[in-house]
Design a protein that fits this description.
Blueprint lengths: L1 E6 L9 E7 L2 H4 L7 H20 L6 H14 L6 E3 L1 H12 L1 E4 L2 E6 L2 E7 L4 H5 L6 E5 L2 E2 L5 H8 L6 E7 L7 E6 L1 E4 L3 E6 L2 E6 L6 H16 L6 E5 L8 H9 L6 E7 L6 E4 L12 E5 L6 H11 L4 E4 L7 E8 L4 E11 L15 E2 L13 E2 L24 E2 L10 H11 L18
């Protein structure tokens, strides 16, 4: 049996991803975890209840669903991030972890017109077939998509590589429907977007999948080449609304701005399970250029590892609003005959200075509040880890469990209205701004 250790945000924030695979049998065979006689008596009680439901309930129950619900009930009593994943959920998590799947390469949304193509992804079957932004997908393999849920439609477009699917397209300005036969291929999810703000490089990281560090490195190299390495004023790393992901990717991303020092440590129930992860010399991709990291209430897990490490080492100025506050590690253990898995909280993580941000979040060095559009007023904030029922307490601060982050999670898609980004660009360019830096020395732009 194998175990897969993950940093997860939980169902409210999205899935996270793994940092390693090791032998997980010790969790089942270690005598220290042997059940007591009282436990066996309780298991007998569980069996009696299940048997009574099977025989006396008013309708014939689905026994598989009963067992799954019982397991999840047991796990939910521990913390918000421990759960049983059925085979479908486990497969979806693995797809997120890999950052690739068999599909067409279309970003879609649902509006009044139907399933609308936002954009075909470059160099994918959809792009090569001629799919355009604004196209409306009306049928898949001759079956109308009307009345179906968007997730179900997306699942049908995914599938094994080298298999075909027929799309019926309604295109604005074209009278007749367009029929397309497209062959599925491996679609890679690119978690990084970048652009230039004059002589400042901007890198947006949306998730920590297997490609996060490589894509970030590629973005920094391309941006630096365009500006000129000697002319770069600084860098902005945008981690807003990034729910986390692979721990090893978080370590590599942090190392992309650090040349030495600890990045993160994890501590489990037993002292021998503690681990420390440090930066490799020569890892800084920016050669020590000034750095600003943007965070908000949607920045969680691996995002907080990166922000916490860069803040503790005074390598970056952290800007925005308080982060989500999830500092626990989950372990994925494949379990059962049907391909499901157990997601169990097994450790906490700590920033290089030894602080836990569990149920507290990371406080930005410079707070910048974002005004949401009128239609999202009152819907743009997240209460953070501390608001989740049954969350783990912060082991270093008993009062932390009662805190609420109240951080704004919404970031407007129109960057001209993005206050935090505009502020960060001005600071890196040396433009005089109205708000002063806080007195804390770590808030100073590093040189």
């Amino acid at each position: 049996m194998r175990k897969l250790s993950l940093l997860l945000v939980g169902a409210l924030m999205g899935s996270a991803v793994a940092f390693g695979v090791t032998d997980g049998a010790k969790y089942l065979s270690n005598p220290a975890f042997a059940a007591s006689p009282d436990t066996y008596r309780q298991l007998m009680l569980f069996g009696d209840v299940l048997d009574r439901i099977r025989t006396d309930y008013v309708e014939q129950p689905d026994e598989d669903k009963l067992i799954e619900a019982a397991i999840n009930g047991m796990l939910s009593s521990l913390d918000p991030h421990s759960e049983y994943m059925n085979p479908k959920s486990y497969k979806e998590m693995q797809t997120t972890t890999r950052g690739e799947f068999g599909g067409l390469g279309i970003e879609v949304t649902m509006d009044d017109a139907g399933v609308k193509v936002v954009s075909p992804i470059d160099d994918t079957p959809a792009a090569r077939a001629g799919i355009r932004a604004g196209d409306i997908i009306t049928a898949l393999d001759g079956n109308s998509v009307q009345g179906q849920q968007l997730n179900d439609i997306v699942d049908k477009m995914k599938g094994p590589v080298n298999t075909d699917i027929n799309l019926t397209i309604k295109r604005p300005g074209v009278a007749d429907p367009i029929a397309m036969k497209i062959t599925r291929a491996i679609i890679q999810i690119n978690p990084v977007k970048w652009h230039l703000e004059g002589d400042v490089g901007y890198v947006k990281l949306s998730q920590f999948n297997e490609h996060a560090y490589d894509k970030m490195k590629e973005a920094i190299q391309k941006a630096s080449a365009q500006i000129g390495p000697d002319k770069v004023k600084g860098w902005i790393l945008d981690l807003r609304n990034d729910p986390g992901g692979l721990l090893d990717q978080a370590i590599q991303v942090a190392n992309g701005f650090l040349d030495k020092g600890e990045i993160v440590s994890t501590r489990g129930r037993n002292a021998d399970e503690s681990q420390r992860f440090t930066a490799r010399p020569g890892g800084d991709l920016t050669n020590g250029k000034p750095l600003i990291v943007l965070i908000n209430g949607g920045s969680a897990s691996s995002s907080e590892i990166v922000a916490g490490a860069l803040q503790d080492h005074r390598r970056a100025t952290i800007m925005g609003t308080r982060s989500f506050g999830k500092a626990s590690v989950q372990t994925i253990i494949p379990i059962g005959p049907n391909g499901g898995a157990l997601r169990l909280t097994t450790a906490r993580y700590y920033t290089p200075s030894g602080r836990s941000i569990q149920a507290k979040g990371i406080e930005p060095d410079i707070e910048v509040l974002q005004d949401p559009p009128p239609e999202l007023k009152g819907k743009d904030d997240t209460k953070g880890e501390a608001s989740l029922k049954g969350h783990l307490a912060n082991p270093l601060d008993a009062a932390a469990a009662d805190e609420k982050t109240g951080s704004q999670a919404y970031v407007p898609p129109d960057e001209k209205d993005d206050k935090a980004l505009a502020y960060a660009v001005d600071l890196l360019k040396g433009v005089k701004v109205n708000a002063a830096f806080p007195a804390n020395p770590k808030s100073a732009i590093p040189n």
